[in-house]
Specification:
Nucleotidyltransferase, domain 5, six-stranded mixed β-sheet, 2 domains, 15 helices, alpha/beta
Length: 365
């Protein structure tokens, strides 16, 4: 079964065709700023090898409480996904736009929705529940959903092979660090806790998102006309994070400017690392111990200084990095120092393989 994995992001649409043995057959990345797809570019891409798919798997950001596993797409599923847009108004439209466009182009090819929230459906109530009034939780489904589940699920499957602990179901803190960023506490291959919550805004400092802030501050900003709701939403999603602190959302530029002693970039990096170390320790506490820290995503894979500085502050957990191995790491790698009781690894992000695996499983069920 050749599976076309469709991964809509915040500024692009990634299309990957994978063969029976998960070998890559073709791949294209199209610009799609704020979910605006170029219909002609998509049609041209699908006119080539990508259009030879036997099945299509779509990354969908939000599955709500209903969709806890990948599901075959039909009109009823699409309608249900549209109803969930209010839970992810900035992200769900991207998934729906991709579903409409690709299904429209490929016709009768069976399609499956694979959810970023589904991996976190195993959260215990203590991890998923906000201490908010019961009517809010019951009426509107207010809870921690978590995101980046496809990436964290791949880490859960791949990390034991890298660490050589495949038979031990290790306790892993998965660090998906990209434009968006989140951590996941994994034990027995299942999500036990995560940093993103009801929305992808909670948790770590990100490229343009604030991460966790005092909700009282947000109420204060809305009081007395200081900010409109639209201004607050725009600021939290697109004008905060590294961009707000360093003047750039690109971690490569932040690191370069900090290396040259620029105060704003130095502060941005320290804030980013402070939150990252604190949240890794919190995830370790949720697991009751730690066997491995896994870095994935654009920053996690390609910023060795971020890995080194983050782990340097976690020596008390038993983690340590070999600087030379870390600096030269490419692809999947164990960058741990000799004798470290907690392994530090790099995992190449392969959401496409996770989407393909879930698609095959859903169609063969």
């Amino acid at each position: 079964m050749r599976v076309l994995a469709v991964n809509p992001g915040s500024s692009s649409l990634k299309l990957s065709l994978l063969g029976d043995g998960e070998e890559p057959l073709a791949a294209v990345e199209l610009d799609a700023p704020r979910a605006e797809l170029d219909a002609d570019a998509l049609r041209d891409a699908l006119a080539g090898p990508l259009g030879e798919a036997d099945a299509i798997g779509f990354r969908v950001v939000h599955g709500g409480e209903r969709f806890r596993d990948a599901v075959v797409i039909d009109d009823g599923v699409v309608a249900a996904l549209r109803e969930l847009t209010e839970l992810a108004p900035l992200h769900q439209p991207r998934s729906l736009a991709a579903i409409d466009a690709v299904r429209g182009a490929l016709g009768a090819v069976p399609a499956v929705a694979c959810f970023d929230t589904a991996f976190h459906a195993t959260l215990e109530p203590a991890a998923a529940t906000y201490a908010l009034p019961a009517p809010w939780r019951e009426r509107w489904g207010v809870r921690r959903y978590g995101f980046h589940g496809l990436s964290h699920s791949w880490v859960a499957r791949r990390a034991p092979a890298i660490t050589g602990t495949a038979a031990l179901a290790p306790r892993i803190v998965s660090c998906h660090l990209g434009s968006g960023a989140s951590l996941c506490a994994i034990a027995g291959g299942r999500s036990r806790d995560t940093t993103m919550g009801f929305t992808p805004l909670e948790g770590l400092v990100m490229a343009t998102r604030s991460g966790s802030v005092d909700p009282g501050l947000l109420l204060w900003l809305l009081d007395d006309g200081r900010l409109s709701r639209a201004q607050l939403e725009e600021g939290l999603e697109y004008e905060s994070g590294l961009s707000a602190l360093a003047g750039t959302s690109d971690m490569r530029e932040v690191l370069e400017h900090a290396a040259h002693g620029e105060d704003a970039a130095t502060l941005a990096l320290e804030v980013y690392l402070h939150r990252l170390r604190a949240e890794i320790a919190a995830m370790a506490a949720a697991l009751g111990g730690l066997d491995a820290v896994a870095f994935t995503g654009g920053v996690g894979e390609h910023a060795p200084l971020v890995r080194e500085r983050a782990i340097a502050g976690l020596a008390f957990l038993g983690a340590a990095i070999d600087p030379a191995i870390n600096a030269g790491a490419h692809g999947d790698a164990d960058v741990s120092a000799a004798g470290a009781s907690v392994r530090t690894i790099v995992v190449s992000a392969r959401e496409d393989l996770e989407i393909a695996a879930q698609t095959r499983a859903a169609l063969s069920a």
